[in-house]
Amino acid sequence: MNSKYYKENISFREVILFVLPTYFTSLFTTMYTIVDGVCVAAWVDTDALASINIVYPLVNILTGIGMMFGIGGSALAAVSLGSGNSKKAGEQCTISALYAFFLSGVFAGVCIWKLETWLQFLGATPSTLTSCEIYAKIWLFGAPIAVGKDLIVAYIRADGAPKKSFFISAAGGITNIILDIIFVGLFKWGIFGAGLATIIGLAVSMILGILYFTKGKNQISFSISGLSLKEGLICAVNGSSELVDQVAIAVTTVVFNRTALSFAGKDGVAAVSIIMYLQFIFLGIYYGYSSGILPLLSFELGRKNYTACRCLEQYSYRLVSLLPIVLYCASYFLAPLAVGVFANRQTEVFTMAVRGMRIYGLGYLFAGINIFCAIRLIAYKWGKWAAVITSLRSFSLLLLFLSILPATILGMDGLWLAFPAAEAGTLSVSALISRYSTKKIHTQK
Fold first, then answer.
1. Which one, 18, 108, 211, 284, has least CB within 10 Å?
2. What transmembrane ranges does the database entry give (predicted)?
């Protein structure tokens, strides 16, 4: 393997060193949206900021397609590498990429065909519709680039090169930041400039990723010979929880926006936008760690080294049990500073978002274990069960609490409480599924 971390007796320090680049990769990925939001908030107006949030469900679905095949396919590829079958690993990555490009193209085409109707359904108002159309078209026409970046980063990580996947993502993220400043700040291109900067940044990462696989020093090699449509479906099923998560975010974002609009008008939608941006940073720590350790778990499963699997799991459970306290304290005490990046301190949006962040942040106490449990199941080819956990925390329970809590006397506080309530409610299910799967996985022949 390319990476020294695919070996016997890996220490916790080595696990962290392997995982850190993946976290930073996740952090740079969130920049594509956060930087757009910061620049638009600073140099345009709150209507434009709300427009990005309204369009983002479409982006979520594109991201979900990329992550479903990227994470689902790369997990299976890492298992194949662990069993010594690099040819099969290459075939799994190739077919999953073809499926991803096809589905994202179909989705983008359907959205462009009836774009105004979709945007109005998502919550666009007469004052935001034009901005929404501009931002949405950039993402939809750039769908292959957006999906391709997610795929390539996941495949490089599975190939045992997390540092290279980080540098590739960082190059795109830095490009995005620079172009946002130029396009939005200097050229005054508004939301068009923000969207264009994002797609160019994604393109830089994708091109660098393609160059990585052309050097011939990697274990995973793409090939169109011996492809199996069935294998592509298996990759999709294994990564289905990632699509479920992103679709759920898309749906619940609409519900969040509509509920906030009914209680607090446009200021409420702007406050929701800020909270959603900031949660990327906090949840990104959990996703970054879990996605980072995924190829290690998959590789050891392929080798049938269950002792190493148990060791990696123990490291992980300790980490996701301690981190939540740190993250919640950070979200509580740093709320004014973080929200102040997006909103003026003298505005109602600022006051609402600070209070919202402190309540919403309670969910970080439970989310880490739920996220790790789901991604662990993907690593072990139990993707269907991962989808159960994800659908509960991101969709079913969240929608349930969004329909109940704000309707009571809680109002906007109920809106913010829905997320922690859903994460807490999922925790017991995650524990039960993890306990059941551990008995099955660690006793395989």
1. 211
2. 12-34, 54-81, 93-115, 135-154, 166-185, 191-213, 233-256, 268-289, 319-339, 359-378, 385-409, 415-436
40 contacts 50 by C-beta, under 8 angstroms:
no
**Token pair belonging to 240:** 């289905």
Query: How many angstroms separate the CA atoms of 342 and 59, rounded?
Result: 21
Q: Are 367 and 289 in contact (CB under 8 A)?
A: no
- Write the secondary structure of 382-400 as one string of H (helix), E (strand) and C (coil): CHHHHHHHHHHHHHHHHHH
- Closest to 49 (Cα-Cα) out of 190, 186, 185: 190
Q: Give the model's pLDDT for residue 132.
A: 94
**DSSP structural state of residue 44:** S
Query: Who contacts 349 (Cβ-Cβ below 8 Å, separation ≥6)?
Result: 46, 267, 270, 271, 274, 343
User: What is the model's pLDDT at position 371?
Assistant: 94
- Alpha-carbon dihedral 17, 21, 27, 28, rounded to 10 degrees: 160
Tell me the C-alpha distance between 55 and 137, whole Å. Answer: 10
Q: What is the DSSP letter of 405?
A: T
Nearby residues of 353 by Cβ (< 8 Å), 6 or more positions away: 270, 271, 274, 275, 335, 339, 342, 343
For 7, the enclosing helix (H) or strand (E) is: none
DSSP alpha helix (H) spans, 83-161: 86-113, 115-122, 129-141, 143-158
DSSP conformational letter for 85: -
Tokens describing residue 221 = 């090699």
| Contact yes or no for 78/298 (Cβ under 8 A) | yes
Predicted confidence at residue 103, as pLDDT, reads: 96
Alpha-carbon distances, residue 266 vs 53, 271, 311 (angstroms): 12, 9, 49
pLDDT at 327 (0 to 100): 94
pTM attached to this predicted model: 0.84
As a whole number of Å, the CA-based R_g of the chain is: 21
Q: In angstroms, how far is the first alpha carbon of the chain from the final one?
A: 24
pLDDT at residue 216 in the model: 67
